[in-house]
Amino acid sequence: MLCKVFCACCNGLEVTTITVEVSVSIGIQYRLVGLPDSAIKESQQRIESALNCNGYRLPGKKLTINLAPANIRKEGSSFDVPLAIGILCASGQLEVDITPRLSKFIILGELALDGTLREIPGALPIIIHSKEQGFSSCILPRNSALEGAEIDGITIYGANNFMDVVNILSSPDSCKSFIVTPKSISNQTINSDEKSNYDFALVKGQHKAKRGLEIAAAGAHNIILSGSPGSGKTFMAKCLQSILPPLSKEESIETSKIYSVAGLLQMMTNNENRTGGLIRQRPFRSPHHTITVPALIGGGNKGMPGEISLAHNGVLFCDEFAEFDRRSIEVLRQPLEDGVVQISRVRSKNYYPARFMLVAAMNPCPCGHLYDGRGECRCSSSAISKYRAKVSGPVYDRIDINLIVKQVAASDIVFGEDSSAEPSRVIAERVKEARNLQLKRYSENNESFFTNAAISSSRLKEYCALKRNEELFMEAVINKYHISARGYTRILKIARTIADLAHSEPITINHLAEAVQFRCPDKDELY
Ligand SMILES: [Zn+2]
């Protein structure tokens, strides 16, 4: 007898429906064909044990199992459950005939030896794919099923063990308790008294730096903070997280899919005091400067997403930017431009989205005290140039805002409550309004970008138009500071964001003047 069960596999974010065909005939053999990897080949032992523990058995006949389409490589242990169901069905061990129902289900899960279901990576993209392909239901291990709790238009069953799967398939109507819904997500109690460790209310002074970060957050501009050790640049960069605008549903799904494939979605939602569901906060990734290139951009044996993709729709914070391996800095160039990264593997290529805001912090010179103004810095100008050259020109070119964080007197940095400093939630409100303005403006005009930082050069004239007086002002600035054409477009984009923060449609001289400060804060010092 021949039986077909449907499941799916992820290759990067790309999901393919896989048909498991099981045929039972006379003889004794277990054959698995269709490009399975070693984890799938080993499934026989897990399946046999799980079946025995639940009162079934591997039939003592010739079993041929084909995973179609045969040209796609299948990896991982997620196929255990569909294989086991196919074997039971094809060998006629089930009381109820489930074959007509099987065509509507996508079934996945790894089996423990006693039949308990273990979670699988990539559940969220698989659920979305199943819905798009017209399947009515998915059966997944309970924890994996929770990833899709907020996706509507498909019934998702969360099963704890193999018998649950058999019962759901035999009688879906009596197994409604297995269906996961948004209510299945358990919200852990959040201690409302607990304040974030990183809040701008804790940073005294540093008005210019805070303003720069606010502008960066409002327009999604890449930003570099240079300043001496202890100037608070790392602390302020971490505060950025608290003022980022909320994720839209689409962005949330995009980012959550990447975490799902990496097997990190549950951990991430746990951080947000939930278990299951989608990510609701913009990610903030801060890789250490010793990170390897594959860990940064993705890759490795399994073509997993790297830090830049985990930072998609959020922030990639590179502290001690000049200490990163030069190759690591160099590989950021293409994703900064395209918002997507391609990972080449032995047999395939994976694409992951990687539209992140780059926030870099570094010392201005090898000793770090160049801007202290106390004459402590004895670095030679050639040593300073060499140090800065670690960050290549093309990467510098993608960074809109250059912020110099000056050392302030020790008494001025108060890591305690400061009544004069604005709390992050007030700043976050302004950022959110400015982002909404951009979203409205660019979606009304059917643009492919949604933030000021992403305005394409061909559309710059339209969205950053200057009046005559403003043009004259910029001409003077360009001549004075010898600003390049690229530098000029950066200034226009920053000015657009400053105008948006002020709810002003036209860009005025004031907006431009402030933008110039953030592009070339101290022209003579920095370059
Ligand atoms: Zn120095």
Number of domains: 2
What would you call the shape?
elongated
CATH uppermost class of the largest domain:
Alpha Beta
* Structural class assignment: alpha/beta
The tally of helices reads 23
Percentage beta strand: 15-25%
Largest sheet: spatial strand order: 13-16-19-11-20
Cα separation of the termini:
75 Å
Main beta sheet: 5 strands, parallel
Helicity level, as a percent range?
Answer: 25-40%
| Rg of Cα set | 28 Å
CATH topology of the largest domain: Rossmann fold
Number of strands: 20
Rounded average pLDDT? 88
> Which parts are unreliable, with pLDDT below 50 for 5 consecutive residues or more?
523-527
CATH architecture of the largest domain: 3-Layer(aba) Sandwich
Ligand catalogue: zinc ion
Per CATH, the superfamily of the largest domain is: P-loop containing nucleotide triphosphate hydrolases
